[in-house]
Design goal:
- The chain is mostly beta strands and 184 residues long.
- It has one domain.
- Strands 1-2-5-6-4-3 form a six-stranded mixed barrel. The protein has a three-stranded mixed beta sheet with strand order 7-11-12. A two-stranded antiparallel ribbon has the order 8-9.
- This is Immunity MXAN-0049 protein domain-containing protein.
- It comes from Aneurinibacillus thermoaerophilus.
- Pfam families: Imm11.
Length: 184
Amino acid sequence: MLPHQDRHPDDDIMCYCEETYGIEQYQLKEGKLFKSWNERITFYYDPNEGERQTDYLANNLGWFVVSSKLKRVLDSLEKGNIQYFPVRIIDKCTNEPLEGYFVANIINVVDALCLEHSKDSVFELDGEKIYSVQKYALTKENVAGNHIIKLKGDEIPVFVSEKFREEIEKNGIIGCDFQEVKVV
C-alpha cells in the first residue's frame, strides 16, 4: 500500500491545496498520463500543526507528493511508469518554501486483483455490482517485475514491491509505512 514509515503523524507536515486551477482531484489518481499540469499549484502547511518534513507529504487531495530523494528511489525502480510535476510547498506562517517536491502520477496500472483471496463486500448500485475491498490479495504473475502499481478498476490505492520497501529503508526515506498484502 501507499508508503508511510517511521511515523510520528502528530508532527508530520500536512499540506493543503486550495486552488488546483481546473485539475480535478481524481485526475492524478486514475493511473493515466496527464498533460495539463499547472505549475502555479501550491500546497500550504502550518508548522504549528506539524513541522516534520517527510519524503512523502500527506495532503488534502490525496496526491502522491514526494521529495527529490524519494523521486530518485522511484526513478531507480520504475523508469517511465511515473510522471512528475513540480509543486510548491509553502510554510503559511513564514511564506518560506520547501524545495524539491513533486506530485508523482503513477501510470503503471496492472490487472492483478485476486477477489478470491481478498476480503471484500459487494453491493449493487443502479444495477451494477460494486466491490469494496477491505483486504487486498494480488495475483503473483501479474505483479511480477513491478515495483509500484495501481490496480486496474481500483486505481486509488498504490501498491509497492518488497524491493521498493527495502530501498525506502536503505535510503532513509521518511513519512512512509507499509501494509502487507497477500500475493497468490
